[in-house]
Amino acid sequence: MNKRRMHLAFDLSYIHMEGRWRMPGAALGRYPDVAAFEEIARIAERGLLDMLFSGDGTGVPSTWQGSRDAAVRWGVSWPRQDLAPLAVAMSRVTQHLGFGITYSTTFMHPYYLARLFNSLDHVTGGRIAFNVITSTRRSDYANYGYDHIVDHGQRYDRMEEFIDVCRALWNSVEPDAMVWDAATGQVGDPTKVHDVEHRGRFFNVSGPLNTPPSPQGRPILLQAGNSPRGVRASAYVADMAFGADMPLELQIAQRKALDEAVTALGRDPQGMSIVWQQPCVVRETEQEAVAHRERLLSAIPPEGVGVYLSHNAGYDFSTLPERFTLGELHREIIASQASPGGFVREMVTRFGADTEMTRAEFFDYGRLFATSYTRTLAGNPAQVADILEEKFEATGSRGGFMLGHVVSMPTDLAAIADLLVPELQRRGRYRRAYKGFTLRENLFDDD
């Protein structure tokens, strides 16, 4: 029996941040180094990866002590740049590799993003994906004129309507609407261009898009909700879900919850893939890989750990008392409208809500989370492939992995392309050639 094949993407979000820029083997120059990103794209295509991906945030982290100074000082989730121009540059030196770009539906308008992603799909030759997110970070809200974080459920309500509008706009110009008849001078067929006339709770949009139809029909939609409401939204929005690098039992539970949510919407759960975030370090020997991973622990100082945790949870952990229970902390985070998932939820799952913890113990565990040290697989190609296969099968053999959060770039990506991918190919778990030229063709090939 043929084995199901994995899909692999690579997360660029943190390759220059949290101290990784100064690790041995890093050669990114001063961010953003466009030539370095082009070389990264060439390496990823050499490894036949599906896509390069980047999360994003538009604010400088300021949750820790109500100040951005520590984030700037230690390079924690700063600096960032809109990845769209870099994706265009990387697409010009590749032919098959896709690009996943993140924008927040909490702040943006659907007409603008529908038009932008249509344009990016043309420029990249049909290789673009839209990572659809809601926002939980206070610094982002401040930049868009909000005084408070929007209610958790309302964020997802807005996101679902946002994508309804985008889909209607992408469908407003039919695939064969463009005529380009030089003899008559006719450019388009007006019977194949349609109004949208959306009137909803959050948006009023008339349409249509004023752009030619996208090479893929529409961009691939990715979504990473992991709360109960987020999972339902992911089932509604996503072509492919993006799952966090949480413990395997939580991933299995999310796979089950997503299948149920997809089924409730009348979709076939066999058609819904999840790519799980999976930090990894691959070297020819386990000893080399483990030694390389150890460098993560010295990447950022203790204050930087607090900045990272506070920014991603939307909660100021500098206010922690000397002793507290994990359940109390988790309830406070939820009550503040910050993210109910993430590090504290995982600690509750691991240790129990009634577990009492000291402030020092919390930040010791936090360092392992902020650097992805605990979840970073480190081994030779066979060892890493064994674990990927186990997780792939345990979570339904549909999708694959978003590798990343590595120690140094582009060295670690080259090891994935030249060591790990050949091992997965040998096992029948990975493609030996791209099936097509668009991201949709390659993500949904026969596996």
Main attributes?
TIM Barrel, 2 domains, alpha/beta, eight-stranded parallel β-barrel, 13 strands
Explain what this protein looks like in three dimensions.
By secondary structure, the protein is an alpha/beta fold. The protein folds into 2 domains: 362 residues, Alpha-Beta Barrel (TIM Barrel), CATH 3.20.20.30; 70 residues, no CATH class. Helices cover 40% and strands 13% of the residues. The chain has 16 helices and 13 strands. It has an 8-stranded parallel β-barrel with strand order 1-2-3-4-7-8-9-13, surrounded by 8 helices. It has a two-stranded antiparallel ribbon with strand order 5-6. The protein has a two-stranded antiparallel ribbon with strand order 10-11. A hairpin with a 4-residue loop joins strand 5 and strand 6. Helix 1 runs parallel beside helix 15, helix 6 packs parallel to helix 7 and helix 11 runs antiparallel to helix 12. The longest helix has 19 residues. The radius of gyration is 22 Å and the shape is globular. The mean pLDDT is 92.
Q: What would you say about this model in short?
A:
The protein is α/β, with parallel strands linked by helices and 447 residues long. The chain contains 16 helices and 13 strands.
Cα radius of gyration in angstroms: 22 Å
| Unreliable stretches covering 5 or more consecutive residues | none
Please state roughly what percent of the residues sit in beta strands, choosing from under 5%, 5-15%, 15-25%, 25-35%, 35-45% or over 45%: 5-15%
Strand order of the largest sheet: 1-2-3-4-7-8-9-13
> Strand count, sense and closure of the main sheet?
8 strands, parallel, barrel
What's the shape? Answer: globular
Elements, N to C (H/E):
EHEHHEHEHHEEEHEHEHHEHHEHEHEHH
